[in-house]
Every structure is written in C-alpha cells, then in structure tokens.
C-alpha cells in the first residue's frame, strides 16, 4: 500500500542498522545527514530519524546497541553532532544525548491576527513539489538549534505522511524558485488546520504567510502552529488569551 511504499522509500534515504531474531528483522535504527544551526555556525548533523522495535524484541537491548553503532558511524562519516526525537527522558541519556527545549504548539483564531492580508493569491503546493519545498526549507531563515536534512526524499516522505495535507506558497526566489510557504494538515472544513512545515527568509515573507492564514479565517476557525523562535505569536494577536477560555 501507499504507506508501506513511503516507509520503504524513507529507509532508502539513510544508513540503517538492523537487529534480527531467527533471521527476521525485529529492530531498525536509521540516520541521515543534515545541518544544524549552532549560534552563527552550521554544524554537520547526524539525525537519527527512525528507532523502531517489534514487540518480541523489546527489552533485549537492540535499540540501545544499534543506536550506539549508528552514532559511531555518524562520527566516522564526519558528523559534528547527533540528534534524535525521544519517547521520554532517561533512555537515550545513557548514549550521551541531552534533552532539548520544549516545543510549544499554539492554537489561534486567524481573524485575530494584527497583520495585513496579502493583495495577491498564493500558489497551491502538492507532494509533487517536494523538490521546491526541500530547497526552500534548506534556504529558510534558521535560528539557533534549527535543523534541516540533506535528502529531498526525506522531505517527500514527510509530505506524504501528512494526512489531508494542503500547501500554499509564493515563488519569489531567484529564477522563480519557491521562497516562502506553509504546509500542513486539514481537520474538518473549519479546522483546526495544523501547520507542520513553514519556511521564509525575510520578515516581509513571514508577515505575508501570517496574512495568508488570516485571509482563510472566514472558513477556518483556528490554526495550530509551533511557536516562532524570534518572537511570540501572541504579540501579533488581538485578545490572544481568548482562545484559551
């Protein structure tokens, strides 16, 4: 099926360590190269994107051993730093990983945004535009801790795994390349719409994307989006705490 194909394509984008029982794969750890912003410096990133273990292989040490082997391979490949998403604190501390900052997901009424609505229409984005989206993500404005993966196929898989997806953007870059966009998941006709990916390079592009969300407010009652690194969204909202009541 489509999900199996997407997962298969995802595994093909990086290096994978596999643990077997009776010649059957029961645990897999994958990493892919990327880049992480550390203050004003770009570090070579080894991103552990998959750690998966079957029920019969639980508590046998597979995940820890294979992740350790993956870290060693990342080091040999010249990576400066390794990162992964954890299921809870404690387990990966044994391998030297520290706990990152909280990610705050905020929900808001787009009509309450104190920004101007754009005077032009965006262009629709689909999974077929994954090359443009990946390039835009790679060139986006990043702050300390921001990361991007090297393979466009990782971006394609992320887009395909988004249910009821939608994408809107503007092609203002050199030679008509994608310069700023939003991509996310629609839940019902009136939302909430959750923004999973966004990219922009300038303040003006950021404000245009927020204005684009505001322009959808006659139909979409709310958006969910990860808080921005350089400011708090409530600074641009009229009555920001109203949605919490």
From TrEMBL:
UniProt cross-references to InterPro entries, sorted A to Z: Acyl_CoA_acyltransferase
Entries under Pfam families matching the protein: Acetyltransf_9 (PF13527)
Name of the protein in question: Uncharacterized protein
Species per Swiss-Prot/TrEMBL record: marine metagenome
